[in-house]
Amino acid sequence: MEITQQFNSEVMQAGWFSRQQTVIVAVSAGVDSMVLLTLMQQLPTQIRPKLVVAHVNHQLRSQSQVEAQFMSDYCQQHHLQLEKTKWPVAEQPYQGVEAAARHFRYQFFAQCMGRHHAAVLLTAHHADDQAETVLMKLIRGGQLTQLQGILPEQPFAAGKLVRPLLPFSKEQIRTYAHEQQLTWYEDATNQNNDVLRNRIRHQVIPALKQENPAFLTHVKQYTAQLRATIQLANQRTAELLQQVRLNDQIYSTPRWRQLTVVERRAVLKAIFQAAQLPVTASYLDEATQLLNNEQKPTARLNLAHSRVFEKAYDQFSIKSELKVPQNHKPADKIVVISNQWVQLPWGLRAQLVPTQKGSRPDSWHMALALRPDELPLQVRQAQPDDQIKLAGGGHKTVRRILIDHKIPPAKRAQQLVVVSAQAEVLWLIGLQRTARELTETNYELVLKQSD
Ligand SMILES: Nc1ncnc2c1ncn2[C@@H]1O[C@H](COP(=O)(O)OP(=O)(O)OP(=O)(O)O)[C@@H](O)[C@H]1O
């Protein structure tokens, strides 16, 4: 019963919603969201809002239909309003299904909030989800802010998304579900250890809990401290940004130079973030060098999404610069512009996109760690004497690679390469990539057969 009391007092203290408000509860029919729904139903009447259940049938598993029917029956029995929808199979992509399903789900939740004038959406993320997320970020690398993990509360649609089960462990949730004799459905795909999150869930976290049973509590405490520290740092950065800003998108180089090294980097990072550009160490290093270089009063740095970081005497800014390739013949170099499909020879299209979570390189898809000065990339026909860097430090010619892959001579003319702005061959498409450290990938080159 302990969980009920703690949940009720959390709700009371946090003041996420009032009795008069409508709250959407996202329920998948899994144990976590069934417990969340039950706890919400059992809140004392003076703090219990009007509840609307939202359920998405993703049609990805054979069990999906049974779960959707269960939610209808449950809501009818408990006199709860239910919003449910199906994710049309025709809209489901071949790759990146997880991310597309999430996008569809949250769009639906936002629509439900609109329809019911609800200011709050609840999901059932819990303390184990939090630890998994933090460990995944540590493994994958990235920005410190990501180590805050899942936020207890964040703006969403016209209101906010709240995760009231974050303080509770999966074990507490399961114990409560058994005590209350709840019905729920297990997602069989959660057992698949090909997925990083599942390996962390089944192999890493149990080992860490064995080292110290307070592991989840420690993750909770670290993430809370980090959230508070990041909040303070953001406030300070916003003040500094104000000092450096001349007007809307233009900044003062001398004022930026007056800042400490740490402050300069924080301000640059904020400027990149505001421009919705990937914030990578190499971008920040190169922009810093460029601003610090007093020998060169004007300089430019190519960025993602056809944007340019430009220093012009005492000012700097990020500008848009669209370079659309014109009149290219198949064998010509074709410029790949980020976030735009470009037509390649032999019925192919290519697009450069910022790195996406969870995607894996394959023959249609290549993760890249690029310096800003390597953009734009170009695609052209492979030349037999083109060379690709090997991991041991040597090189291999394209001729050799094509022979090793047993590509028939008639097909060799169709082979394409991706080259950097410095003409380094990065990828013999579909066959071999250059040996390069991939700890901080910032782009992916995606290929597709033309429709
Ligand atoms: N099909 C669904 N219908 C309604 N709610 C869902 C559905 N799937 C997930 N949710 C909600 O989202 C929560 C988190 O689900 P899950 O852990 O499967 O997703 P995630 O990918 O880890 O997280 P998220 O998608 O929120 O980033 C669930 O506890 C539930 O509240």
Automatic annotation (TrEMBL):
Residues in Lysidine-tRNA(Ile) synthetase C-terminal domain copies: 377-447
Location within or outside the cell: Cytoplasm
Presence of the UniProt keyword DNA-binding in the record: no
Enzyme class (EC, first level): ligase
Keywords: ATP-binding, Cytoplasm, Ligase, Nucleotide-binding, tRNA processing
An individual GO BP term: tRNA modification
Record-listed E.C. numbers: 6.3.4.19
Record CDD domains: TilS_N
InterPro entries, sorted: Lysidine-tRNA-synth_C, Rossmann-like_a/b/a_fold, TilS/TtcA_N, tRNA_Ile_lys_synt, tRNA_Ile_lys_synt_N
GO MF terms, alphabetically ordered: ATP binding; tRNA(Ile)-lysidine synthase activity
GO cellular-component term (any): cytoplasm
Keyword tRNA processing (UniProt): yes
Catalytic activity as recorded in UniProt: cytidine(34) in tRNA(Ile2) + L-lysine + ATP = lysidine(34) in tRNA(Ile2) + AMP + diphosphate + H(+)
Pfam family, one: ATP_bind_3
Function per UniProt: Ligates lysine onto the cytidine present at position 34 of the AUA codon-specific tRNA(Ile) that contains the anticodon CAU, in an ATP-dependent manner. Cytidine is converted to lysidine, thus changing the amino acid specificity of the tRNA from methionine to isoleucine.
Family: Belongs to the tRNA(Ile)-lysidine synthase family.
UniProt protein name: tRNA(Ile)-lysidine synthase
Gene (name only): mesJ
